[in-house]
Write a structure and sequence with these properties.
Radius of gyration: 12 Å
Shape: globular
Strand content: 25-35%
Largest sheet: 4 strands, mixed
Helix content: 40-55%
Number of helices: 4
Distance between the termini: 11 Å
Length: about 80
Amino acid sequence: MDQQKLKERAHDVDVTVWVGKSGVDAVVDELNDQLADRDLVKVKFLRAARAGSSTEEKAAGLADSVNAQVIDTRGHTAVFHR
């Protein structure tokens, strides 16, 4: 499926993973589990998680950790696909 179609589908996906002050490492297992069950997962990066870096940087790091692709970032939310 191409990038544009995935972005369109991601619009209706609800946030199911929140990254907080514990950081990205705390949600790696949960995101892995959710990506095993569905092809798109939306992640919200709370203020405490973003301290000093952008959502894009945090999302790229998380994507590397779970062997996934970042489909889109908007505001403080990113969509992952595997």
